Amino acid sequence: MPANFPEVWEQRVRQILTTQDVAPWLDGIPELDGEVYVLGAGTATEKNIIHVSIETLRPEVLINNNTYPLEIQQHEDGSSTITLDKYQTRPTSISDDAAMGASYDKIDSTTNGHRRETAISKNKKAIHALAPAQNTANTPVLVIGADGDVFDAMADLGNAMTKADFPIEGRRIVLQPDHVNWFLKNKERFANLFVDHNTGKLSQSIAGFECYAYLGLPMYTSAGVKRAYGTVTVAGDKMASVAFCVANVGKKTGKTKLYFSPASANPTTQTNILSLRHYFIATPVELKYYGAII
């Protein structure tokens, strides 16, 4: 086995995590500008953090002004420290026989489970973070009418966003499976919204939203309150479709670390032990400009 085998694995895992299994509804959103700082490296309390500025200045625009001197408006932008979520896989063992050599096909087959489950977890956590806690003027959460019309609910959500001064450009909605299925069952009414009826792929734009589909959307109680991430659901809970404005989403990829114990350190089992740690965050920049329909 090459001496740098663990390093080759780590490089490959990092490459795959940043190029595969990326949630398409996060595509095109730039990484937050700022350096990732590692606190408590190598300890149980290790953290990845980033300092970001929050630009909230909205200067008043004067039209045909003839009064001078102009009154000065103070710039009071703030900053925030964000702690990235830490994702760790449970260690798994790989026999030395299976791990011999360093070809990418063997590396990928060995690390695929760690990479895939990490990607799934971080994408689910990301869309949960982009869903509002409950209905407010700045975070509308609308209940679909008794007729179950998802399109009308999307139109109502878009109208609520407009009334709350949400940006028109860059509105995205991630539809949960039942809501996608509703469009499929109403294909005669919405025939022009589909690219392929066989696959059920929706058009990229419906009711003013860029549309995506996803399985792991957050759950809301019957009172319209978002369940905490990882909470066990109960009767009456419903999965939501989540909408947000691209300009209000921040994401950041932190460090990726591979933990590897070679078979030479385990003479009785002759197995290699592997585990993965990955840091990532997706979050609203401000507590507004996002909503949901349930």
Question: What would the keywords be for this entry?
Answer:
294 residues; alpha+beta; Major capsid protein gp5 fold; 2 domains; six-stranded mixed β-sheet; four-stranded antiparallel β-sheet; 5 helices; 17 strands; 23% helix; globular
Detailed description of the structure:
The chain is of the alpha+beta class and 294 residues long. The protein folds into two domains: 5-129 and 250-282, Major capsid protein gp5 fold (2-Layer Sandwich), CATH 3.30.2400; 141-248, no CATH class. 23% of the residues lie in helices and 29% in strands. It has helices at residues 5-19, 96-99, 104-129, 150-163, 177-185; strands spanning 37-39, 47-54, 78-83, 85-88, 92-95, 141-142, 171-175, 194-196, 201-202, 205-206, 209-213, 219-220, 238-239, 241-245, 249-261, 271-284, 290-293. Strands 6-17-14-7-11-10 form a six-stranded mixed β-sheet. Strands 4, 5, 15 and 16 form a four-stranded antiparallel β-sheet that branches. Helix 1 (5-19) crosses helix 3 (104-129). The N and C termini lie far apart (53 Å).
Percent strand equals: 25-35%
Overall 3D shape: globular
Assembly type of the chains comes to single chain
User: For the record, what CATH class of the largest domain applies?
Assistant: Alpha Beta
Taking all residues together, what is the mean pLDDT? Answer: 81
Low-confidence stretches: none
Give helix and strand order, one letter per element, not per position.
HEEEEEHHEHEHEEEEEEEEEE
Q: What is the terminal separation in angstroms?
A: 53 Å
Count of separate structural domains: 2
Which structural class fits the helix and strand makeup? alpha+beta
Strand order of the largest sheet: 6-17-14-7-11-10
Count every helix, treating DSSP H or I runs of 4 or more residues as helices: 5
- E-strand count: 17
Please name the CATH architecture of the largest domain: 2-Layer Sandwich
Major sheet summary line? 6 strands, mixed
